[in-house]
Amino acid sequence: MLTDLQPFIGRFHPLLVHLPIGFLLLAGAVEILSRLKCFEGLGIARLMPALLGLCALTTAAAIGTGTLLSWSGEYDAALVWRHQQWGLMLGAVVVLASAASWWRTRTDHRLPNLLYGGAFVLALVLLGLTGHVGGSITHGETYLTEHMPAVPFLASARASTAMSPVDPSTTPVFKTLVAPTFEARCVTCHGPARQSGKLRLDSPEAIAKGGESGTVVVAGDAAGSLLVRRIFLPTSDKKAMPPKGHPAPSHAEVAVLRWWIDQGASFDQMLADAQVPAHLEPAIVDRLGPVDLSAPPILSVRVQPGDPKAIDALRALKLRVEPLRAGSSLLMVQAPPAARLLDDTGLQALTPLAAQVAWLDLGGTQVTDAGLTALLPKLVNLWKLSLDRTPITDRALAPLSTLPRLESINLYGTAVTDAGLKSLETLTRLRSVYAWQTQVTPQGAEALQAASKKVQVTLGAPPTPVFETPTDDRAMVKAKTN
Amino acid sequence: MKALDDLKFNATRRHFLSAASLGIGSVALGALIDPARLMGGTAQAPGAAGAAPTGPLLPATQFVPRAKRVIYLFQSGGPSQLDLFDEKPLLRTMNGEDLPASIRMGQRLTGMTAHQKQFPLAGSHFAMARHGQSGAVVSELLPHIASIADKLCFVKSMHTEAINHDPAVTFVQTGSQQAGRPSIGSWLSYGLGSDNANLPAFIVLLSRGREGDQPLYSRLWGSGFLPSQHQGVQFRRGKDPVLYLGDPDGLSPETRRHMLDTFRQLEQEQHARVLDPEINARIAQYEMAYRMQTSVPEVMDFANEPQSVLDMYGPEVKTPGTFAANCLLARRLAERDVRFIQLYHQGWDQHGNLPKDIRTMTRSVDQPSAALVKDLEQRGLLEDTLVIWGGEFGRTNYSQGKLTKENYGRDHHPRSFTVWMAGGGVKAGLSYGETDEFGYNVVRDPVHVHDFQATLMHLLGVEHEQFTFKHQGRRYRLTDVSGHVVKALLA
């Protein structure tokens, strides 16, 4: 009985909240009018204690019904909490204001006047805040701003946040995609406050442990996991989760949950390492914002945009300079055939853009050890480097050990040796080294590959094998099937 | 004269005023919204005054480009996936039995087999085996390609809409079965520009594995409605790779230069009068041709290629115009930053006599294709060069004409075929997609031609849905109105 009455009364909250708003605004209007000449002598100021009193009463009613409504748990918990806090404060301030307005009619003291004025203004401010948060709860947080005309500086701020996608290599799948669903839909009953069925879903350890009915997550088998099966039970079933009356997870949330379990239910997997099926991408984008799942990790590096003058200086040297992609300040700098005469003097033009250069291709140019030793240590965000067919030696490679983001180095057709490769051993992200037509020996290549497991050293294609062309096809298949 | 008059009205007073006010307005708005971007020098409005005619249209790619250039080894005629990559033992056990109607599902056939009373299933005469750590299936006909299986990404679930050569090749190359749209290379030349001012961004090389096969048409590398300097330039075999490029005997380079300068003046005067953008294209092409007078002989000359490299490509590499020679040339062009190198190898249309003819073809492509991948790799070029190997459609699992013990033929089959790729950001050692046990329909992970094109664009950093060109009142794009990037293929 009580359980039915509670939401019934609670749902009068949206009606009742408008009463204190009306009374308070009316009180404000009366306060202003009473000071106007044409209303002088009518004594409308005497209405104030009554108006504020009514306001205090209806505020209390709104707080009461609101609290009942919040128990249904159907709303965004964080917003509800904020709304409640502001609302309680508003109630207190309104009571104060109405008391002060009554008091100031019976005394000439200054204190009640001050109190009245301060409380009134504060009440109006709190009313705006509480009302806004309340509106956000029912209509969504973007309701007000959605159709706001674009103000230039705001628009650019919005565009730039839209342009900076999430970096999948630093985004944990569980924490960003799965845990929020548990948080929103399950933890009220399966968390620190209550542990229905002796199950808690608020930490990786607890989820792995399971509850009364055993383990809830079978890694790799969503269909066989109790967690998923309970969600798919018909709502009439007693064991269906979440139970009747509680908000159910959306299709997208369930799809992501199932995918996470099928993926092995890992708690520390990064999004970049997960295989994301195409149909889940919208759900992921919905939760995380734009995410380019195939984007290389280098994009997570944020740098200031390069000086346009410095970029123009590079272009004057016939180098090709482009952003790594639209919206990124990282640069690709490449020496096309027309820039093959580039030498150490030209390299100095790169120094002002040292933080921005991520992909540097100087293949076939005239750069030497001297120029590179000066430049390379400064290129802290270097990701790909091509120095093929340049007159460099091992000395140019020494500074590379301080460039942790380096993934690929092309050294083909240079005088580098095994000793030069030694300086690459500390590079943890290094994937490929091209060392064809150099002094690098197979032993040197193996040493580097042993030191840094992910790296592939290419020393040139192995000699082409000689194959017999099949002649009598029938005979061949027979020979093989026999 | 009608056409010229029309061109004059390309820019009427009204048109000019509306365009000008919009332009000024959008510049002002752009400055308000994001001054850094507008003034940063990276963005350049298309057709802005002073823009180099070959400069890139896209201010920046939407994705980090995994490939900077493409070598497309197009196998014209439709290679038989069932004899090269798609192993179907069932076809051998059911050899000669009729194709079940439940598999064909009313699929339209070409006029060449539609009249057949029977569709006898034809098992491949060639053994297939798994190769490398990836276990990719490759036929014994392609031992060299099999030896680099771990470097390749096989898409075994390609399907197309066209069933005859011309529309099918046009579909793969331009995204439309009807002629007239720009080809992939032209789109990329237009969008990404050229990295080498001395060579076209889009070069086409033709070769022929055997005589008497389907013809090709130069519109396959046409620029459609894009400015015509973006069309593919065909390099021929023999002494004169680009026709009419060399100066006639007795004409000195100075005289040529002088002639070009005067010619340019006249063209510019004409342009000022009629505002035809094709005049700019023409000037650009003349200038390009002048620079190519030195760059082309240099790139065509294999004299400084070491013997070990020549050996990789096989004995035919020394015969100009062969697939082997074109593969080596493609690598040399890639080294010189040519954006899109399109090879066509003709001779795969094996309606009859397939067991014999396919051997002729595989002999000519196997070693050079594998050599190209290996050669690119040892130079570090495979990292940002995308190699594509495939035709316009597949071939049927049933025999066209009489199936005998020694012989069979296969008709065109749009519902499934195999394409492989290497380098440029694709996942090496992957076999993607699957056909049914008859090798007829795709049963897992289908990849439509538009999906393939969308993925290709993605690898080059271009969002295929945003890269459009307005022509005759609508915006066109390579993938028309469909196409999804196949993320599973990306490394």
Could you describe the 3D structure shown?
The complex is a heterodimer of chains A (482) and B (491). By secondary structure, chain A is mainly α. Chain A folds into three domains: 2-139; 160-293, no CATH class; 308-458, Ribonuclease Inhibitor (Leucine-rich repeat, LRR (right-handed beta-alpha superhelix), Alpha-Beta Horseshoe). Helix content of chain A is 44%, strand content 5%. Chain A contains 18 helices and seven strands. Chain A has a seven-stranded mixed sheet with strand order 1-2-3-4-5-6-7, with helices on one face. In chain A, α14 links the parallel β2 and β3. The longest helix of chain A has 30 residues, at 110-139. The termini of chain A are far apart. Mean pLDDT of chain A is 85; it is low at 154-163 and 473-482. Chain B has 491 residues and is of the alpha/beta class. Chain B contains 15 helices and 17 strands. In chain B, the strands form five sheets. In chain B, strands 1, 4, 5, 6, 7, 8, 11, 12 and 15 form a nine-stranded mixed sheet that branches. Chain B has a two-stranded antiparallel sheet with strand order 2-3. In chain B, a hairpin with a 4-residue loop joins β2 and β3 (136-139). In chain B, α10 (253-274) runs antiparallel to α11 and α13 runs parallel beside α14 (354-378). The longest helix of chain B is centred in the C-terminal third of the chain and has 25 residues, at 354-378. Mean pLDDT of chain B is 88; it is low at 27-54. At the A-B interface, α7, α13, β1 and α18 of A face α7 and α14 of B.
Summarize this structure as a short list of keywords or feature phrases.
heterodimer; A: 482 residues; mainly alpha; Leucine-rich repeat, LRR (right-handed beta-alpha superhelix); 18 helices; 5% strand; elongated; B: 491 residues; alpha/beta; nine-stranded mixed sheet; 15 helices; 35% helix
